[in-house]
């Protein structure tokens, strides 16, 4: 019983950064922008988030630092890929390389420092309930926020006019432009949201997951978040399922090693990507009609004036 | 004529057509670098008027209407709306003032529903529910049936245009711009559209109607403004002109008539298709079902049909871009070729001209000589022991240039630098110079100016006269009537039995294009599916 609870808690903890980062990328991709720089924005968010928390002693301010850092990184991407219409794939990859370097520079002075990690909710009576108590009522703020975030994004995309316009930009930017919508401005905002989420997801790692900063601590989570968006076929509901599934796989990998199961850990690390490939194959085979990916995803748009 | 229209009009408030113009442009100019897309254009549009805007591709029609709709800012000149000078910040401002537009290439979102598409074209002040209710009401009022819940990719081209029109009408525009609305419609669908347009006119609205179908303009429009090379040539009453005189004004000279050789003799079957069926590759593709025909040397077979009914899929199956399961389904020069690659089919004597000039017919950033090599290398002497014979590729370009009057700035420019008409002449010329036994050509004169179109049609006729079998896919019924010996119609991936050109009236073809000639049993089957 204790073990099950521990595993669920560990899965939630491992899934939360994936969910937050993937939610941001989902919004960016739904507007038609493929930002492969998630890993870079996350790692800078991690460094800046830790720096903020260490300097002020506040986890909340640390998280804000992460958000601002991720947003600034995404603005670099927006300037290149949207403002100057540079190839999005190349720009995104460059952003990741930049981010890894930059985070090492920012975080160099903080390696080896420790902070008090984010506090967890305690509701007397509820948090003590066996099995589900700590899972439901004993998490830190990031976990609750991530769930509120994806619900809000779902509501935004499917229940508001602004969300409809954003999806329209991702489906056909030429049509959206012809109807008078500011495609580039909408996409810039979507990319900034993606950057803010990635920054927060990165900041989660040193603020709540492990209370210290080490270079490269995102360890490929940005790439998993990207795979997750594809895995979810760009739908918020499936994104939640996928995030916890992928999180579970990473935890399983640790426990499997501990239990001495004879599966190489490299294979387990590759599982999320393998799952994504399989989902892509299934999606294209099913082909029920409407395309699943935003039709304008990754294409350059230059309005003619 | 106009007085007659007014008497019929119940909403007339006694104003006459001499009333002040609804929209006026004065010296409207749009410059792109050194290029003048619009040069000092003055145009006046009055209420209760269907005003045609005529001109060849590149004459500046689209630029002019984009400026009027606020999509681009004019470089100079003024736009006056109801007597007052306006500067439009964008389409939404144009819509608020009462200017609506229906685009040629629809501004629709394939993966959104009809209602969502309409909502995106409105200002969003009413709730989605109210908007949906109004959508149903407007579509009923004007006889433009639509199901608001369906996603656009499921709809036919005619239905998609209905969305555009209903979306424009829901803003109650005083002035509606239609950019080549009938280009994608069957003749019957076009007639339906004309009824709607006459009704809009009777309600007191003005319409700017872009087209290059002259008979249609003569029938529908009260006034016509003709553009050529970015300048206004003339404003006239199209009913007092002939199609030939309008064409002269558009082209700025006589259009050469295409002459078919009388007494062309058909020989052996050169291209035979036997019960060809193919599943679609793309998400929104069409399934080819049991297509069979036989094409003899010396014969031109036309394939008519609204775009997206399987013409692209058929082209891919014939050219070898897609292979058939059974080799015997495509027979070229008596040899089963369904399993052969494009190059192998070329070696059998077939040649192919796809619809899309840039990206399919040519590699846009490569020179003409390189493009000549890319399709010619398999069957002509441009490669020696694996090395390119540059002189031979240039000779091919020169021959195509001379024979087909390709106009270009340099001897060997990049494909993308040529105008549509000249590039098409080059592509068709490149294939014809190889003396093919079978030529499969898709939309040979789409978006090509009248002069180049005549050259290309003549070349196809001459090729058939020389004994080749020619298969032409086109949406332009006039073109098929001009050159084809027999015409078949493609609908939902099925090909009708070919009609001889003499018995293929517009009405018959139109019915087939709308899918109405299916056997009763098949109709029941289609309805149940």
TrEMBL record, chain A:
Molecular function terms from GO: transmembrane transporter activity
Bilayer topology: Multi-pass membrane protein
TM region(s), chain numbering: 6-26, 33-53, 59-82, 89-111, 131-157, 189-207, 213-232, 239-256, 262-283
Keywords associated with the record: Cell membrane, Membrane, Transmembrane, Transmembrane helix
CDD domains assigned: TM_PBP1_transp_TpRbsC_like (cd06580)
Primary location class: membrane
InterPro entries (UniProt xref): ABC_transp_permease (IPR001851)
Range of residues in the leader sequence: none
A Pfam family: BPD_transp_2
Keyword Membrane: yes
Compartment annotation: Cell membrane
GO cellular component terms, semicolon-separated: plasma membrane
PANTHER family assigned: ABC TRANSPORTER PERMEASE PROTEIN, SUGAR ABC TRANSPORTER INTEGRAL MEMBRANE PROTEIN-RELATED
Name under which the protein is recorded: Nucleoside ABC transporter membrane protein
Native source organism of the sequence: Bradyrhizobium yuanmingense
Lineage, top ranks: Bacteria, Pseudomonadati, Pseudomonadota, Alphaproteobacteria, Hyphomicrobiales
TrEMBL record, chain B:
Signal peptide, first to last residue: none
Residue segments, region Disordered: 1-21
Keyword DNA damage among record annotations: no
Domain ABC transporter residue range list: 23-254, 271-517
InterPro entries: AAA+_ATPase, ABC_carbohydrate_import_ATPase, ABC_transporter-like_ATP-bd, ABC_transporter-like_CS, P-loop_NTPase
Keyword Endoplasmic reticulum: no
GO terms assigned for molecular function: ATP binding; ATP hydrolysis activity
Residue ranges of the TM segments: none
Keywords, alphabetical: ATP-binding, Nucleotide-binding
Function, as annotated: Involved in beta-(1-->2)glucan export. Transmembrane domains (TMD) form a pore in the inner membrane and the ATP-binding domain (NBD) is responsible for energy generation.
Family membership noted in the UniProt record: Belongs to the ABC transporter superfamily.
Protein name per its UniProtKB record: Nucleoside ABC transporter ATP-binding protein
Organism of origin: Bradyrhizobium yuanmingense
